[in-house]
Design a protein that fits this description.
The complex is a heterodimer of chains A (about 425) and B (about 325). Chain A has about 425 residues and is of the alpha/beta class. Chain A is built from 14 helices and 16 strands. In chain A, strand 2, helix 3 and strand 3 form a beta-alpha-beta unit. The radius of gyration of chain A is 21 Å and the shape is globular. Chain B has about 325 residues and is an alpha/beta fold. Chain B has a single domain, classed as Rossmann fold (3-Layer(aba) Sandwich), CATH 3.40.50.970. Helix content of chain B is about 35%, strand content about 15%. In chain B, helix 3 packs parallel to helix 5. The chains are: A alpha/beta (about 425), B alpha/beta (about 325). The interface between A and B is large, with 44 and 46 residues. Strand 9 of chain A pairs parallel with strand 2 of chain B. Bound molecules: thiamine diphosphate, iron/sulfur cluster and magnesium ion. The site of thiamine diphosphate has 16 residues of chain B, from helix 2 and helix 4.
Chain lengths: ~425, ~325
């Protein structure tokens, strides 16, 4: 979306939407988003690297800057059930986790979606034990992909703050009502500091309406029964309703970004993924999360040498932007999919993003060549040189489609 | 230790004829004939009344109780996961408190009650129940104990009586007794472990009459997190004729195998004190149930001996198994 607005009153209003600039890491930026969303119930449990958001929130509450119930849970399972049930009585709720903690509470995550409740969770991506590793790997959040959740990645602390607001806005919309997972790369984003613009409460209030569960809110004045046993009689119809909600969510997401841009300035050109130097590109890399930073630098340097390369940062993984991505990727000769996760034993033993991207491209009569990279597991750095190499391998795939390896492990000690 | 909202004034129900007529758990469920756990549901809802929100953990009181489009619940109700009883109550109480404090919901005292089974509340969800009892929310957790994972076809839990036959503990030619664990003392453990929790009790839905109704009311009126463990004969799991459910409950209490007490602000009050009223032999309770049909004299003697110890040697009889004459040592 190009900025065509010349009305200075509108521009002034957009400038006024920002309160101050602050040096914040990803977790602290999310905490500011939670404060601005006026969240009612927060439940905490410690695990690196997401924990720092809970440290920041407890301090905001202690200082009287946020009015919320703050519950230190006995486990992630309880933590997630607490926010699920708080959400069912009409409270805006927040929790989060990382790695094995996320998996420990997984049962509760699954039912939050089937109960069609919209709390927001931060996933500070972390490798799954064993052996122990604190570093980023996306398998924790990716485990949600078939569970009826909204799932999106932030690439900067600024985006993280803004996606708390966009996340609640989409999740709570009566056409959607799905739980929202906002993921960020452990360490690379959760703990790296950026200058973050913090919006004003007034501007946020214009963007994010109050949470209203309507006729599904549990209260003595609305004595409904939620989630009674249905068995084969109704499960298919209910699954279909989840499916319809996920489809409607796409339109709601588009609308949310439009209104976000109107209130806060043209921050997002496209809602579902970002494009970097793709205009006349022939070869692109598509990745998820904070790897955007080295990838963009690699692209810029290769561009300086006259190479037609670009980078696509996939922001929303659920709902998957099928049509949008198909249209976008069909412009290129070769696409390299970078997975910071693994899907053991899957087709080509590739990554999770590979499979969705390939299946999204399948109906095209003429498809770009698609190769896959597994990299950065357990928090291993993905360097600019790694990104350059991936772009080069992808470029070669365009030349001699067919005889190359589909999956390449990048940065692997051989 | 409470919301600071005026507590609901509950009158003690005196005399069966004065039991409220309104039902908040009615037709629609399909529990077995003679199901005492269903009686627990009916009674707690009657005692707490319409300004209540309930959550029910997975188990018979979910699956056999609440089918889509035939809910028996007049009060608002929500399913919660098997081990999530404590967390469900905390989440709802926290949500209501925040919404009321922030002016998003009219202020009023709403009872938040979770019921979980012996497996859900006493084994899997014990840590969550403990978390709830450490909180400062007004909530009540009722652990309805039918001494098995009844819904999944009667498997032994940590609260199944020693020796009982279940589908996980069948008597066999090599091992007569597969259920070798002594029943977990959940109410006692929770009372001992949560000094700021003001009310922990055990109860039976029907004996003594009105006892359970009044315990629910006491728990709700005292404020803060509270806990009641009920003892629920289950005709299917215990293998007896449904006609005798109440009698079996009564026998369990009179034999002393299930102690009936309240711990209010740390003070122990026996609702039925077998030391004063005498104990009937546990054999009379055991022999009426098919699940104990394979026991021999030696097994019955062992159970009797354990029950004797509970009343004669425990420092706090029926509640806490400490020994060593702590009381007399003080003197
Ligand atoms: C996490 C999980 N594990 C296992 C089950 C299967 N399950 C459903 S009900 C049940 C038994 C519950 O026993 P209890 O809590 O004593 O309740 P009851 O059925 O006896 O009423 C089990 C094991 C489940 N629903 N969820
Ligand atoms: S199996 Fe037992 S607990 Fe379950 S409905 Fe039947 S009597 Fe009640
Ligand atoms: Mg049971």
């Amino acid at each position: 979306m190009k900025q065509t607005e010349t009305d200075t009153a509108v521009l002034d209003q957009r400038l006024a939407a920002w309160d101050r600039k602050e040096l914040l890491n990803g977790c602290q930026a999310v905490a500011q988003g939670v404060r601005l969303a006026d969240v009612d119930v927060i439940s905490a449990y410690p695990i690196r690297p997401y924990t720092e958001v809970m440290d920041a929130l407890s301090k905001l509450i202690a200082d009287g800057k946020l009015d919320a119930e703050y519950i230190i849970a006995d486990s992630e399972h309880s933590q997630f059930e607490i926010v699920k049930h708080a959400s069912s009585v009409g409270a805006r709720a927040f929790a989060g986790s990382s790695g094995t903690g996320w998996m420990y509470g997984f049962e509760a995550l699954v039912v939050t979606a089937t109960d069609r409740l919209p709390p927001l969770f931060l996933v500070g991506n972390r490798a799954l034990d064993d052996p122990g590793a604190f570093g980023v790997e996306h398998n924790d959040a990716m485990a949600l992909r078939d569970m009826g959740w909204l799932l999106c990645w932030a690439t900067t602390a600024q985006e993280a703050l803004e996606h708390v607001l966009i996340g609640y806005r989409v999740a709570e919309d009566s056409r959607v009502r799905m739980p929202m997972a906002l993921a960020m790369d452990g360490a690379f984003l959760t703990h790296s500091q950026h200058m973050v613009q913090v919006p004003t409460e007034e501007a946020v209030a214009r963007f994010l309406p109050r949470y209203d569960l309507g006729p599904r809110r549990l209260h003595p004045d609305n004595p409904i029964s939620i989630a009674p046993q249905v068995n084969e009689d109704w499960v298919m119809e209910l699954r279909r309703q989840n499916w319809e909600a996920a489809r409607r969510a796409k339109g709601v997401i588009v609308q949310a970004y439009q209104e976000f841009n109107e209130i806060f300035g043209e921050r997002y050109a496209t809602p579902f993924f970002s494009e970097f130097m793709t205009d006349d590109a022939e070869t692109v890399l598509i990745g998820v999360g904070a790897v955007a930073m080295p990838a963009r630098t690699a692209v810029r340097r290769l561009r300086e040498q006259g190479r037609k390369v670009g980078y696509i940062g996939l922001r929303w993984f659920r709902p998957f932007p099928t049509e949008e991505l198909r249209e976008c990727l069909s412009r290129f000769r070769a696409v390299g999919v970078l997975d910071r996760n693994f899907a053991h034993g899957s087709p080509d033993c590739g990554g999770i993003v590979l499979h969705d991207v390939r299946s999204c491209l399948y109906p095209l009569a003429s498809r770009p060549a698609v190769v896959n990279f597994i990299g950065g597991l357990g928090g291993r750095d993905i360097s600019i040189a790694d990104c350059t190499r991936m772009l080069e391998i992808t470029g070669k795939a365009a030349e001699r489609a067919g005889d190359e390896e589909t999956v390449t492990w990048i940065g692997l000690r051989e | 230790m409470s919301t600071g909202l005026p507590v609901i004034k509950y009158d003690k129900i005196k005399g069966v004829k004065n039991t409220p007529h309104e039902e908040f758990y009615t037709s629609g469920h399909r529990t077995c004939q003679g199901c005492e756990s269903a009686m627990v549901m009916r009674q707690f809802a009657k005692a707490s009344g319409p300004r209540t929100i309930a959550t029910g953990s997975t188990g018979c009181m979910y699956v056999a109780n609440t089918s889509y489009q035939t809910t028996p619940w007049i009060i608002p109700w929500m399913h919660t996961q098997l081990g999530a009883g404590g967390a469900s109550a905390v989440g709802m109480a926290a949500g209501l408190r925040a919404l009321m404090r922030k002016g998003k919901l009219p202020e009023e005292k709403i009872n938040v009650i979770n019921f979980s089974g012996d497996l859900g509340g006493g084994d899997m969800g014990l840590s969550g129940v403990s978390g709830a009892l450490q909180s400062d929310y007004d909530l009540l957790i009722i652990m309805y104990d039918n001494e098995s994972a009844a819904n999944t076809d009667i498997q032994a839990t940590g609260l199944t009586t020693y020796g009982a036959q279940t589908t996980f503990t069948p008597p066999g030619q090599k091992h007569r007794i597969m259920a070798r664990r002594w029943k977990k003392n959940v109410a006692g453990m929770l009372a001992v472990g949560h000094p700021t929790c003001r009310y922990v009790a055990t109860a039976s839905a029907t004996y003594p009459a009105l006892d359970f109704l009044n315990k629910v009311r006491k728990a709700l009126a005292i404020g803060g997190p509270t806990f009641i463990h009920t003892f629920d004969p289950c005709p299917k799991g215990w293998d007896f004729h449904p006609r005798y459910s109440h009698e079996l409950g009564e026998l369990g209490i009179k034999s002393g195998i299930f102690p009936l007490f309240e711990v209010i602000d740390g003070k122990v009050i026996y609702s039925y004190d077998p030391r004063k009223k005498g104990r009937v032999p546990v054999r009379e309770y055991l022999e009426k149930q098919g699940r104990f049909a394979h026991l021999v004299d030696e097994d019955v003697d062992y159970i009797q001996q354990m029950v004797d110890k509970m009343w004669e040697e425990w420092e706090v009889p029926g509640v806490a198994p400490f020994r060593g004459n702590l009381n007399s040592a003080q003197k």
